[in-house]
């Protein structure tokens, strides 16, 4: 979210700390994806609509975003360790709420607490990873969330399909892991000196520098398409696969999310040293191709093609995200980057949640397959608009030279 406002206490890279912090970040994002394979089970047990299902999903990124914006800089003032510890305790509380959930309102409350905890963790762990290693920390911060989403969805789907207590065991395992991590946090070196201004830091800083505004506008369509696809996959993919192919295995939703996110992580690793502009163009085209494959798959009831489509789309997602961030960040001065990234993440998390919520409201009227077709075609159109703008920018740059 932002780089530390104050210099770290220790400048020397600390691989052990970096690995531990990466594991904590993986755990938070794994927890966020854990309910995905269970959504259709909750829906069957409690008989709620697709609209309510997507609301249960969407309330998480909304609260995460609020938490990220309000508390994103708090650890710069009171230290990293107490903030990481507080985030872990809140996340354990959300796991307890999931375990004891007996109604839709219970699920909504659990997701609210989870979103709030993850927002706190996302910011402080990004800063702590940068503190632990200025070179490898940012890369770990980019890869860990994608690995976490994949691990959470896949492991949860396996436990739901084959283990006892399908709606509880995953949460118990995560609670135990996070309790251990919460104790271990206090053994870390503190990398942020306490300083005044903690209350003032709670005021969100959102701004797009003049130099970055044109690039931001060009990135908007592709970025919305990327995050909207992720939101749809994490909320409605299990139900869509079951409806389109007739396969009701809980593994399908977990595999789809894992393929999407792991492909994104691999894409980030492959293209991390490349020029961001061609990477962004490649990501835009590849993502649109993957979405088209998913549409063909659900209309021909081909399960393997569904996974292939998510694989291709995931490669495009990772490249698009990496290209967008690496295009934007150099256009802002150091003191402007926090505000710029706040604006970027507002756009991203709204795209992650709002389109999926709208899709959920359309399912009752149009059906899940027709809704997915319309959703996918809109995302492809957004990618086409983005690609047109990217090509124009490249041509203008070449003409200027």
Gist of the model:
The protein is mainly alpha-helical.
Please give a structural write-up.
With 401 residues, the chain is mainly alpha-helical. It folds into 2 domains: 1-204, MFS general substrate transporter like domains (Growth Hormone, Chain: A, Up-down Bundle); 208-401, Growth Hormone, Chain: A (Up-down Bundle), CATH 1.20.1250. 79% of the residues lie in helices and 0% in strands. The chain contains 14 helices and no strands. It has helices spanning 15-33, 39-46, 50-71, 75-78, 80-99, 104-132, 136-162, 169-185, 210-245, 251-271, 276-300, 303-328, 337-366, 368-400. The relative contact order is 0.15.
Rg computed from alpha carbons, rounded to a whole number of angstroms: 20 Å
Give the helix/strand class: mainly alpha
* Tally of separate helices: 14
Helicity range: over 70%
Most strands sheet: none
What's the rounded overall pLDDT mean?
Answer: 88
Low-confidence runs of at least 5 consecutive residues: 1-10
- Number-wise, the strands total 0
Bulk shape: globular
Classify the fold: give the CATH topology of the largest domain: Growth Hormone, Chain: A
Strand portion: under 5%
């Amino acid at each position: 979210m932002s780089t530390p406002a104050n210099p770290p206490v220790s400048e020397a890279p600390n691989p052990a700390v970096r690995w531990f912090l990466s594991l904590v970040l993986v755990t938070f994002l794994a927890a966020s994806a854990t309910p995905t394979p269970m959504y259709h089970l909750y829906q069957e047990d409690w008989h709620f609509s697709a609209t309510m299902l997507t609301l249960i999903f969407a309330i998480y990124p909304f609260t995460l975003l609020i938490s990220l914006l309000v508390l994103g800089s708090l650890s710069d003032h009171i230290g990293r360790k107490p903030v990481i510890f507080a985030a872990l305790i809140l996340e354990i509380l959300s796991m307890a709420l999931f375990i004891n959930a007996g109604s839709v309102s219970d699920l909504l409350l659990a997701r609210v607490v989870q979103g709030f905890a993850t927002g706190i963790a996302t910011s402080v762990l990004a800063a702590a990873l940068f503190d632990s290693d200025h070179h490898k920390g940012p890369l770990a911060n980019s890869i860990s969330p994608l690995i976490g989403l994949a691990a959470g969805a896949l492991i949860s789907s396996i436990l739901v399909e084959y283990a006892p207590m399908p709606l509880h065991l995953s949460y118990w395992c995560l609670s135990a892991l996070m309790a251990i991590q919460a104790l271990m946090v206090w053994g870390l070196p503190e990398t942020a000196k306490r300083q005044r201004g903690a209350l003032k830091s709670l005021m969100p800083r959102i701004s797009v520098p003049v130099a970055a505004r044109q690039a931001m506008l060009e990135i908007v369509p592709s970025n919305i398409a990327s995050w909207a696809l992720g939101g749809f996959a994490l909320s409605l993919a299990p139900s869509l696969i079951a409806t389109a192919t007739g396969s009701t295995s809980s593994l399908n939703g977990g595999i789809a999310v894992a393929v999407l996110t792991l492909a994104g992580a691999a894409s980030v690793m492959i293209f991390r040293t490349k020029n961001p502009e061609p990477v962004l163009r490649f990501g835009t085209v590849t993502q649109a191709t993957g979405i088209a494959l998913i549409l063909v798959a659900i209309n021909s009831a081909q399960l393997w093609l569904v996974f292939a489509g998510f694989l291709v789309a995931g490669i495009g997602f990772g490249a698009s995200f990496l290209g967008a961030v690496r295009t934007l960040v150099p256009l802002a001065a150091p003191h402007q980057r926090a505000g710029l990234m706040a604006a970027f993440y507002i756009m991203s998390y709204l795209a992650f949640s709002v389109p999926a919520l709208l899709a959920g409201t359309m399912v009752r009227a149009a059906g899940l397959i027709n809704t997915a077709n319309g959703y996918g075609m809109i995302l492809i159109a957004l990618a086409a608009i983005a690609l047109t703008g990217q090509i124009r920018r490249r041509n203008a740059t070449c003409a200027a030279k």
